[in-house]
Write a structure and sequence with these properties.
Layout (H helix, E strand, L loop, with lengths): L1 H15 L2 H10 L13 H8 L1 H20 L19 H18 L12 H11 L1 H18 L2 H21 L8 H18 L1 H9 L14
Helix pairs in contact: 1-4, 1-5, 2-3, 3-4, 4-5, 4-6, 5-6, 6-7, 7-8, 8-9
Length: 222
């Protein structure tokens, strides 16, 4: 039980690394939370510092989720202290648990007053390690929506919601056997609901037409 607690805490700490805040401090000497939307995430870095730093932040945030799944989870060496009734082996279930902890760390970061980002990129890093094809398709939807609308928040919402939809279509219409489908699907749905919740302010701005669009021009001066 102590070993499971250890990997959960370690995953949370990895997810808590405030990438956007560190990058904004190093690049411009600012706290990204005081600019743009005030969110400590890659999309706000995209708006304030430009697309290059925004993409770097998103990639590093995704890496946090991937590290939790492929590195931290491997530190779990015990058998479960409870019965594993899922179709996954114990290690895959530990990966999911560590991934959730990393996302929570990103949203409620210990290192920045529990005020972090919205968990999209970190969740991406988690899921792409577990359901790679579905996430690749969701990424395509993200870039398509952002490219057309120039709203990163709308692209993030579309991608998050599309993951469980894609899984259902592949499993039930195209008869693709997705390993652990019945366990991953509820997890993907819960993650999508969580993403919608963390984007409630963005949704309100989108409905009002006041959400900020991104630009692929040179970085802004702040």
């Amino acid at each position: 039980m102590l070993n499971l607690f250890f990997v959960i805490i370690l995953s949370y700490l990895v997810g808590s690394i405030p990438t956007s805040i560190v990058i904004s401090k190093l690049v411009r000497g600012i706290d990204i939370r005081n600019f743009g939307s005030g969110n400590a995430g890659g999309s706000n870095v995209f708006r304030v510092l430009g697309w290059k730093w925004g993409i770097l932040t998103i990639l590093l945030d995704a890496l946090k989720g991937a590290i939790a799944v492929i590195v931290v989870a491997r530190l779990y060496l015990d058998s479960f202290p409870f019965s594993n009734v899922t179709p996954f082996d114990d290690f895959t279930l530990v990966q999911i648990i560590c991934g959730v902890a990393a996302v929570m760390g990103h949203v409620w970061t210990l290192f920045a007053g529990f005020k972090g980002g919205k968990g999209i990129a970190t969740g991406l890093g988690v899921l792409i390690m577990i359901v790679t094809i579905d996430m690749a398709l969701a990424l395509g939807i993200f870039f398509l929506v952002v490219g057309i609308s120039r709203y990163i928040s709308l692209g993030s919402l579309a991608a998050a919601v599309s993951v469980p939809v894609i899984m259902v279509i592949r499993e039930n219409i195209f008869n693709v056997d997705i390993q652990g489908y019945h366990t991953i699907l509820p997890f993907a749905i819960l993650l999508a609901v969580f993403v919608v919740y963390t984007h409630k302010a963005n949704i309100a701005r989108l409905l009002k037409g006041s959400e900020r669009k991104i630009s692929f021009s040179k970085k802004k001066t702040v």
